[in-house]
Design a protein that fits this description.
transmembrane helix, MARVEL domain-containing protein 3, signal, transmembrane, 7 helices, rod-shaped, mainly alpha, membrane
Length: 232
Amino acid sequence: MAAIGTTIIVLICVAVAQAVMSGFSSMGGLATGSFSLNSDINPFQGTELQEVRDLDMQYSQMRAPGVYGGAPFSIVMGVITLFFLISGAKPLCSIPIKLLVFEFFFDVLACVGYIVAVGLYLHFVIQVNATDVCKKRERLYARQGYTWMNCDVQGGDAAVALFGLITSILYFVGSILCALTIRLAKAIQRDMYLEQNQPEPEGRSQNGKQRDHGHRRHQRNIDPDLPVSTLV
């Protein structure tokens, strides 16, 4: 459940980071940015307005692969985790060992996958911020006092990396717990199998046979025409 929660937070941070950094233009087909070109507080005018609009659009489109890659990845991880969460909501003795083994390998792959995804996301963001488009855009915004619209790694991108690493740690812990659960489930199922297939003690078996033999002999001595009420 914790991994699902942090996965949702990662998804939100990816979208927010794109929205905040979209500037005065729209977010390359993802709705509106953090500012509006038609707003009364728009500080850009004339050719500068057109230039910042073009730069914002180019920058948003350059960052778009990070959103289109990060969002589906987070959704897929969350859905698979939710599947294992629902499938495991039953007594341990009735959970198939194969399901627990699949969950263990998924937790390991998800842990490694999130670490790799965070590294690729930050590498992609740094590459985009190192382009001439970002540098020109930074200078235009700095002229109007918007110094926070720069080419450094912003808070939204840092939040994506932070919660991505937290999710990776949660999957790592989940893999350890899953391994311990597999061991416990095997022990429980082995004990249940031995209990079901354990032979009866020899003395108990002979006594049982003597009781069955005496019961059958007693039944042979009973008059079949005797009323049932007298038998009771």
